[in-house]
């Protein structure tokens, strides 16, 4: 079976230059004409300017969901997640969800989310198994 190297999410945006600036300056991505990527494509987007604002459609909340996300990314530890939160907040990210910690039988899950200029929700989470 062939191995997939990486994937990117395609986002239709209202203002390409504004989105490029957000993904570079706030999210810390390397941005060029084709991509906005961070951490060797572990987080990647292809930004395409919309023909009209009606074409911009962030996800709606799904059946059984309490939160809506357009992108969900994982980081290794809760410490890494806390550091990423501080980094993004200092760069002016619009915080959609403050960091929340959830306890489960297997361990804990922690997550937060930010909002881009077109209201796409980008969430970040980390898990910690009980020892």
TrEMBL record:
Domain VOC: 5-127
Database matches in PROSITE patterns: VOC
Transmembrane segments: none
Source organism, top-level taxon: Bacteria
Pfam families according to UniProt: Glyoxalase (PF00903)
Protein's recorded name: VOC family protein
